[in-house]
Every structure is written in C-alpha cells, then in structure tokens.
Amino acid sequence: MNEETRKLFSDLGSKNVKDLAFRDSWVFVGAKGVQNKSPFEQVRVESLAPQNSVPAPSAHPAGFPGFCPSTPSQGTPDPSPGAQGGAV
C-alpha cells in the first residue's frame, strides 16, 4: 500500500493504517456519510515463525551412541541399495 492510499484511509478515520506491515491482515469498515459512529478497524499481525514448532530430534538417538543418520560412522552399515558396492 503506498503513502497516498494510506493517507486516504487515514482521512476516513483509520488509526492503524500507518502502522501496517507487509502481509498484515487489516479490516476497515465504514459507510459514506455516517457522522455519529466511528469506523470499525481491526489489525491482525501474523508472525512468520511456525505456530507449533517441534524440537528437532537428537543427532544421537537414545540407545544408539555414535549413530547419526545423516553421516554413517564406521561399523554402521549403509541401508541404501547398492551401498556395499554390489550389483542392485
């Protein structure tokens, strides 16, 4: 929203239009010619952070010391097909 548009809403009675950020949800309801009532306005700011974040699993699961799924250690077989160098 550019500054000209923000000024138009401000002139109509908006108190929040100047504080809106990118991707904020904003509702401004009014009616032309209404003199005795204030316009309705509501802002909802959305965070970019996940709402239900789950902690990452440990790199060394309990019961498997020295095992890290992303980097196989010596003595830990690679379960992917053809990992042993044999024919698939």
UniProtKB/TrEMBL annotation:
The keyword Plastid does not apply. Residues 1-33 form the ILEI/PANDER domain. Keywords: Disulfide bond, Lectin, Secreted, Signal. The keyword Signal applies. Belongs to the FAM3 family. It is found in: Secreted. PANTHER family: UNCHARACTERIZED FAM3. This is ILEI/PANDER domain-containing protein. It comes from Lynx pardinus (Iberian lynx). GO terms for cellular component: extracellular region. Residues 51-88 are annotated as: Disordered. GO terms for molecular function: carbohydrate binding.
